[in-house]
């Protein structure tokens, strides 16, 4: 009987040790699981941090790209505007390139026309007058080929864009604002007035 009691005690002790061991193993497993969970959480946080950093870098790159595109578009627009202005300047210069020489020739044409109109033609001077007329006509023909037009507006309505009123007169037989006389012809090159015509304008009082 004593032997059986000893065996029972030993078995009981083994069971207790086994339970203690299992309990310790369970606690260790819990600790390991807890550590694993904590580590997993840390890994997730680290992954989230890396992802946030990458997203921030991507956003920064997108902003830089947009700024570069905007800068390029502004520069391109400025260049296009500059090119248009230069082309317009060149076209304008080509269109009116002969204006300076024409402006210098006009007074000489005035003198030739005054000389022709002031001299009474006779047998002695007819050839000279004819020669002067031919010179004057030749010059006017050359100017016409360059796009020059004469402004000789007698009988037309006064237009301040083309005419300069130096005298006013009342003539009831004519409509008001009609040009009665041209003292000096004007000239224009294409659509630009080089010199307005000097005129006398009819001004009638309205009743």
UniProtKB/TrEMBL annotation:
Protein name per the record: Protein GrpE
Ranges where the record places region Disordered: 1-49
InterPro entries: GrpE, GrpE_CC, GrpE_head
Sequence ranges of Basic and acidic residues compositional bias: 1-48
Family under the similarity heading: Belongs to the GrpE family.
Compartments, record wording: Cytoplasm
Membrane spanning residue stretches: none
Major localization listed first in the record, in broad terms: cytoplasm
One Pfam family linked to the record: GrpE
Oligomeric form and interacting partners: Homodimer.
Encoding gene (name): grpE
Function: Participates actively in the response to hyperosmotic and heat shock by preventing the aggregation of stress-denatured proteins, in association with DnaK and GrpE. It is the nucleotide exchange factor for DnaK and may function as a thermosensor. Unfolded proteins bind initially to DnaJ; upon interaction with the DnaJ-bound protein, DnaK hydrolyzes its bound ATP, resulting in the formation of a stable complex. GrpE releases ADP from DnaK; ATP binding to DnaK triggers the release of the substrate protein, thus completing the reaction cycle.
Domain of life from the UniProt record: Bacteria
Keywords for the protein's UniProt record, in alphabetical order: Chaperone, Cytoplasm, Stress response
Lineage: Bacteria, Bacillati, Bacillota, Bacilli, Bacillales
């Amino acid at each position: 009987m004593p032997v059986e009691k000893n065996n029972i005690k030993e078995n009981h002790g083994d069971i207790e040790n086994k339970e203690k061991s299992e309990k310790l193993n369970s606690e260790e497993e819990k600790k390991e699981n807890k550590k694993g969970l904590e580590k997993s959480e840390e890994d997730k946080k680290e992954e989230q941090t890396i992802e946030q950093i990458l997203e921030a870098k991507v956003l920064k790159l997108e902003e830089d790209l947009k700024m570069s595109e905007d800068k390029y578009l502004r520069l391109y627009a400025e260049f296009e505007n500059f090119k248009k202005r230069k082309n317009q300047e060149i076209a304008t210069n080509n269109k009116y390139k002969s204006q300076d020489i024409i402006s210098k020739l006009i007074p000489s044409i005035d003198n030739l026309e005054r000389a022709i109109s002031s001299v009474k033609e006779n047998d002695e001077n007819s050839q000279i007058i004819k020669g002067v007329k031919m010179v004057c006509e030749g010059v006017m023909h050359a100017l016409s080929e360059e796009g020059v037009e004469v402004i000789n507006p007698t009988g037309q309505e006064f237009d301040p864009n083309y005419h300069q009123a130096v005298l006013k007169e009342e003539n009831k037989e004519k409509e008001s604002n009609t040009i009665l006389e041209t003292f000096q012809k004007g000239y224009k090159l294409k659509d630009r007035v080089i010199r307005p015509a000097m005129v006398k304008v009819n001004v009638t009082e309205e009743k």
